[in-house]
Each structure stands twice: as C-alpha cells, then as structure tokens.
Amino acid sequence: MSKMGLALQMYTLREELKTDFVGTLRKVAALGYEGVEFAGYGGLTASELRRLLDELKLTAVGSHVGIADLRDKLEEVIAYNHTIGNRTVICPFLPVQMRGSASAWKETAELFNQIGRRLAEEGIQFGYHNHSFEFEEQVGDQLAFDALFSWTSPEWVKVEMDVCWVQNGGQDPVTYIQTYAGRLPLLHLKDLKKSADGTVQTVELGNGDVDLSAVISAAQNAGVSWMIVEQDNCQRPALESVEISMKWLKTNYLS
Asked: What number of H helices and E strands is found in the chain?
C-alpha cells in the first residue's frame, strides 16, 4: 500500500498570502509539505506559478474554484490548471440557492455531472468539498451528502471529504471514508475542538477531538492519494499552526 502524500490547503494561510504569496509558498515547502491545494493564485500567471512550483518541488494537488467560475469560466479554469500541472479541481462550497431542497440538490447534481464530464475530457478530476450542512439536511430518506453523490457519476464527480465537518455534522468520518472508498482521491485532514457550550474551533492536528489515527488508517485503505491539512481559523499565527500540524504528522504518520 503506497504512502499518501501530504499537502496544505493554502486557504489556511490566506492572510500571509495577501502580503507575500511567493514567500509563503517557500515557507510551506520548507516545512516539509509535498503539495499544495490552491484557493486562489495570488495574481500569478499560470506559467509563473508553474515555475515556482517546479523550483520548490511542490505538487499542485488541487484547486478550489468557486461555482460561478466553474459554470461560467470553465475553459479558463482548464487552461490554468493544465499549465500548473494540477489534475483535480474542487467546488469548495454551494450558495443557499443551490441546496436546501430536493429539487435544488438535483439541479446541482446535474450541473456537477456536466462540469465533471467536461473536466474528465481534459484529464482533470472534478470533486466536491463538504461542510457540515450536507449532513444536517435531509433529502428524502437520505442525507444531502449521500443524495448528491447518488445523483452524480462516480466517474465524473469525486469526493473531497473534510473529516472535521463530517464529525461536526454528527456523522462518523471513518464510516464515511469507508463508504466512499475508491471515489475519494483527496481528503482534508482537520481537527476540531468543541466546547461545552457547543462552540467549535478548528485546531492543529492532535489538539482536538477527531480520531486522526483511525481516519488516516481508513483513508489509506480507501485509496486516498493526498491528505490535505487545513485549519479554517487559527488561534496561533497560521504558519505556526501548520508547522505544529506537520510535526504531528512526522511523529504519527511519517515516522
């Protein structure tokens, strides 16, 4: 069984990227991350970004692209991601009007199939990244998450599972990883801490309530290619937080 790659979702460092996109990527590479998943490109051309990734020996493992650009600017998305060497494009979120009812979810599924089919023609995987609401909404006799993926083609629409939000939505991440094995190329490895009053904080790996060891084992068995560290909101400086998470991985996964 091959070892999964370790990447960082750059959204975690969004404030640092605003002031020094190139320098922040250099720091991520120096921390030992092998890949990065983008949520914006810092104003760099695709060729500029590709040269930087090659210099730093970083793999572009994914790009989060908003649904408006996926719908209206897909050819531009394809061209950019071809150039930077990325082969997985992810829809990171859905506005309210694209969910919340069976008909809305079904229309979204149809759009996803169209997007995924076009991307597949170009050798690019398409996927969807969950939050908690997909596990809190019921669509018929299914949770919205399961309904969405039952209405989309496994060939054209992959799962990018965020285990933190699966757990926050009241479901077991390990069970869901096992259920979607083979359709799950990328996994967001994230930890959360829930206080007695119900407040949720995303925290560094190993500092929260997610059974990360069980998640990692299940992910490896499910054929996940890349585990992607993400922390939506950091209580420490964000670069310090992603360094703490990498140290946890070096001790608990890479050693």
From this structure: 11, 12
